[in-house]
Amino acid sequence: GSTARTISKYRPHSDIIAVTPSEETARQCSIVWGVQPVVKKGRKSTDALLNNAVATAVETGRVSNGDLIIITAGVPTGETGTTNMMKIHLVGDEIANGQGIGRGSVVGTTLVA
């Protein structure tokens, strides 16, 4: 909750989705500018927590495949005030992956029709 409140102070143009296992934290976040709280019971591992947060955001229609999102969390999980991790995450599955033959790196756009 405190990380969502801190981010909210800067009034970003993007949504702030606060996934929390606590009803109390969700109520507190609901009155903070731009924060959309979602109550979802916690997970034990960091990977499960991140996957749970992304799945919840997709299920509620707040993000969709192809969206680039930033996730903040605390390790160890479940401890208040331990936000010490930030992950930039592309929502959805990888469409294509390849290996170049040349020496340089190449970036391109993939179109699925």
Describe the structure.
With 113 residues, the protein is of the alpha+beta class. It has a single domain, classed as Pyruvate Kinase, Chain: A, domain 1. It is 25% helix and 22% strand. It is built from three helices and four strands. The strands form two sheets. It has a two-stranded parallel ribbon with strand order 1-2. Strands 3-4 form a two-stranded antiparallel sheet. Strand 1, helix 2 and strand 2 (35-39) form a beta-alpha-beta unit. The longest helix has 14 residues, at 46-59. It is elongated. The N and C termini lie far apart (41 Å). Its EC number is 2.7.1.40. Pfam families: PK_C (PF02887).
* CATH fold assignment: Pyruvate Kinase, Chain: A, domain 1
CATH-defined architecture: 3-Layer(aba) Sandwich
In the sheet with the most strands, the strands line up as: 1-2
CA distance, first residue to last residue: 41 Å
Structural class, by secondary structure, is: alpha+beta
Taking all Cα atoms into account, the compactness measure Rg is 17 Å
Form type: elongated
Unreliable stretches covering 5 or more consecutive residues: none
Number of helices: 3
Number of extended strands: 4
What level of helicity do the residues show?
Answer: 10-25%
Classified by CATH, the class is Alpha Beta
Q: Average pLDDT across residues?
A: 83
